[in-house]
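Hi there,

I know you've been waiting on this one. I reran it after we fixed the sequence typo, so this is the corrected version. Both the input and the resulting structure follow.
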Amino acid sequence: MSEASEDYKKHEAEAKALTSNIQKLIEYEKHLPKNMITINQWMLLTDSTGNLLGGFLKEWKTKRVLKPGYIPLKQDQVSRGFDQIIKLETSKIHN
């Protein structure tokens, strides 16, 4: 995300690899028992019509370059989304 002030085309392979890796992770998560809440969190995080990672990547691809002041705000939102998933996973370990 920190590279979004540069042209998307320069980082397209990295963005696609990230998206692909997350999709593989989601597929793995779908096969774990009692995991619907975590899967829903991943779906929110990656939704290209939303305001988190998926939406950010779509916006970057569409606009090609994002304003430097905007990027840290989105990084914070996406970071909080990942934190929620981490909390869910951590609570599973303790239960």
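Quick highlight: The chain has a mean pLDDT of 94.

Best,
R. S.
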